[in-house]
Specification:
The chain contains 15 helices and 9 strands. With 381 residues, it is α/β, with parallel strands linked by helices.
Amino acid sequence: MNSFSFKIPQEIICGVNSIEKLPELLNKQELKKAMVISGPHLNKMGVVKKITDILERAGLTFDSFTQTEANPSVETVDKATKVFVDSGADCIIALGGGSPMDVAKAVGILAKFGGSIGAYEGADKVPGAIVPLIAIPTTAGTGSEVTAFAVITDRSRNYKLTVFSYELIPAYAVLDPTLVMTTPEKTAAACGIDALVHAIEAYLSKAASPFSDAMAEKALELIGNNIRLFVADRTNPEAAANMLYGSMFAGIAFAWARLGNVHAMAHPLGGYFDVPHGVANAILLPTVLEYNALADTGRYQKIYDAIKCGEGWEDFTSQTLVDEIRSLTCALGIPKTLGEVGVTVDKIPAMAVDAMKSGNILVNPRSTTLEQIEALYRLAL
């Protein structure tokens, strides 16, 4: 067994209406003015106002930036950073899915240390603590509220750059199930599969440890038992809470165990074709699982058991899990192939080169070459 270490360097608050504790969290840190970073859809729906109303009732001042987009860009980070600095805010509240949280983390770096976000690409280049950050997820999927990553699209290169540092983990994460109960069905499906992929890849990672395994196994249990129910009816309070908490556990798992080929290959799909991250993961997962089967040490059965809600198996093979994943994504209405979401064969060589730059390739359970990544893209196409 590899040596390992871990820590949970944040406070996580869970429960219905837990967002009402925001003023308490800000006062605890003696913070005076917050900037809420979110997206236009959540702003239009009134979710941003729900947060700012809580701050206003408590007599706290705030500003907001609600222009984050899917696969957020370097330009958006720069714009949000200027708004933050000009506002005089001393902390950030990230509200939304992975995109607002990635932007918030990037702003937290640049507002504190300056420069461009590209200068921090890679591992452990953030020199110290970033601007205080509170993360409030409104989707059950990314787990960004507990992870050490920020992924930003550099459109000049059609490339998704990743910043990895444990300094990026928000000081507080507030998990309020009421905020995910208005998620559109397609978003719930894509985000739910994203969380499932986080748990699976962390569980199969070469860097997995007893700690990350514990988090991944709980995530698999919660997501496997609830993803169908949640997508079918997002207003189901128990399913919503369990998906939100499952996503959080999966995020903690991959924060310490990393991921694998699915995520390494998914990021270029967002960079070149703007494929939603969860959809890219869902399409790639069966193909990568087939490829990784050669390295399976018995964990495929445990994953299958979780997804099948403890029904067990007869004559299990690795293909049994692959077929079940394909059945699940089909039932959730997710496209089956990359071709269905507009990916073209001519970009495969360039995407494969970008995928190989990911540190996730190194911890994928089966060693992978550039040529094999190209072949996997073609199979998924």
